[in-house]
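On clarity, I found the account of how folds are encoded harder to follow than it need be. Since the whole study asks how a given chain folds, the encoding of that fold should be made plain. For illustration, here is how one protein appears when written out as sequence plus structure tokens:
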Amino acid sequence: MDNRLATITRFEGLRILKKGYQQGVKFTGGEMRDVMKIIVFVLDKLYDESDYTKNVNDNSLSTISCKTLIKCYVKFIKMYITLRKRQFNEDDLKKFENEIINWSNDFVNIFKQFSPSNLQLPKLHMWRYHTIHTIRRYGALNGLTTETYETLHKNWVKTPYRISNKKDEHTLDQIIKMIRRQIITSTTKKPLKLRSNSMKSLLWKLQIGKIYNLQQKLEHDENIDNLYIEGIKHLISCLDVYLDDVSNASTSDNIYLKIYVNGTLENGKIIYAVSKFHGYARFSDVAIAMDNIDYLTDDGLCYGKILMLVEISLFPNHPLLSLALIHCICSKTI
């Protein structure tokens, strides 16, 4: 078939793939319409009568003659042309229904032997039994389009699937993570910071010396998510390092911590870090612009989850220090 396609004379507006269509090449709807214009001439006498007779005798599956294939395809072309009409009256619908029935019967009779389900396919059923009813109710199908959903399927299913390993039960998780990262990076065009005084829904206010008591309380609370426990552990270790470097920090009795449910970024987006939000844990996914080249990044971005949102009062009469503790996927917690 590909050799025959290659010999067809070129014509303006008619596209034929040089490598043919039998090599697993993915082609578009426009290319399919181009093939529909010439396929009858490709099928005509594609194999001769002796090959047909030999295959019928040697093969358990019946071989279809070229003439039968062409007749079936001509019926499909006529049906397709009728489908493209912009409006229908009752006579048109009756004619169209007869075309659908004639083509469907031929198509099933020819190809059901090659189908494990005998062509008991949902799309074929919908076309055979529900097309006319749909036109009567909603109008000509030529005015409908599936382009939006096909584009979404390509961008959010096909492309991520090709990037995944395609081999185990974790493929779906990989696809979901890729989609989340695409959403994050598509909405983040430049680095953003937390707005000052934007944190809301205070959970705890405590002196820094009592943070170990809070840690023990959280570890024994079954309603606290493991991410939150991870956050409090890393908060303690980060504060130990930070306070050792700040020589003029207040005494521990004067250092207070405030831990919040959510905060607002400069672009107005709200980020969350809470074990229970309407009955579910909610730890926002974020992308972080990394300056350190030692980190494994995606074009300078790391992905992670907000573990904890904290405000710290280090000095009297000094602005609060707002922190978002983040667990990075590409590295350790920062």
User: Anything to note?
Assistant: The two ends are 60 Å apart (CA to CA). The first helix runs from residue 2 to 7. The chain has a mean pLDDT of 79. The beta strands are 200-207, 256-264, 270-277, 280-283, 285-289, 301-313, 321-328.
